[in-house]
Design a protein that fits this description.
Blueprint (H helix, E strand, L loop, with lengths): L1 H13 L11 H4 L8 E5 L2 E7 L3 E9 L15 E4 L2 E4 L1 E9 L4 E13 L2 E12 L4 E6 L1 E13 L5 E21 L7 E16 L8 E16 L3 E3 L2 E16 L11 H4 L1 E7 L2 E4 L2 H4 E19 L3 E18 L5 E19 L2 E10 L11 E11 L8
Antiparallel strand pairs: 1-2, 1-22, 2-3, 3-6, 4-5, 6-7, 7-8, 8-9, 9-11, 10-11, 11-12, 12-13, 13-15, 13-16, 14-15, 15-18, 16-17, 18-19, 19-20, 20-21, 21-22
Amino acid sequence: MKKVLLTAMALLTIASASAFGMYGRGDSWIDFLTHGNQLRARMDQVGFVLGNGTIKGTLGFRANTVGFFAPQAKWGNILSSGANGTSLDSTLSAGIGYTSDVFGIGVGYNFTYVEKDFYVHTPVLMINALNNNLRISIPIQVAVASETVKDIDYPNGAGINFKGKFTGVAFDNIQLRYYTGIDAFNAIRFYVYYKYANFESDLSQNPNNATINSTAETLGFQLRLYFLNTTVGNVNINPFVRLEYHTALRGDKLKGYRAEGFEATMAPTKITSGSDSLEIKQSDLYDVYPYEFTIKPVLGITANSDIVSLYVEPSLGYTVSGSKPKGIEATTTHKLAWGAYTELYIRPVQDLEWYFEMDVNNSDVDGTGVPVTFATSTGITWYLPSLGGAQ
């Protein structure tokens, strides 16, 4: 039983963290159809894009992040071996796409190995239109795991038979982007996040024990509106407003991107014992479901020279979150939502680029409750010539 619980928690972590290959969540795959040939090598990933002006493909690896049990990524690991055999420590991604000025379409696939008989599969569909001004990316994560444990002996001499099954499905970071070509209102980005996880604990073979279904279900939306794209001296300024909303449809986890603990992530939704059955709805537990809403004005600033390009994105906004459980006074929290994001590109020659990225904010994007989130990455991109035809 312990192994199944740990495995289920690991899936919730890996299926939600940025544990993907050369491309991954919507922010990555959505640009695949517009990228030229390149070899990319960064702290946690390596991969390439190759093709001509019509057909292109990609293949790559990215280090997995284990999250709750080991928050650090397995930097540099592709394979490792131990007492349980050889393990794939990185997510493999592959994709192929067709591009033209009028229309583009691509399919991608990510494979994440958790442990024996437990994998995460992420197919992705990408569509571009209107000369790449309209871009859509739809990644879907799917995972199923099961385990049977028999005759577990406890200190009091009691025995137990246990069967557990975990099912996870996520439309994680579905994204639509539209570039209007009008400086006064130049871009729209819309994101959808949905995650469903169910763990079925079957103890019905044991006297006075029940089958328990525990479920976590989260839903979120994000809208970004870009406007007043302006050049001031040698600096380009593109402000935007970011509106974001998350709610827990089942359980108490608002975003559910990373599992802090099994009990805190999933809520019992159905208990069966013999002929008796009890269903527990979210509305039985809450008058107001757990929620979080953020409005954040952001200032995008870009400066370029012949060799160096710098993009900085300071932001300051407002977040309100809360819930009202049945029979308990409502809780509401208000706080400032701040962030500082930076990208630095250095190109000593046209085809070779050094990249540095850093992000500091208090958005709690993984739902861990950590007050400050810090992320950074660095590496190189080598831009390669086309394999034939215009690029």
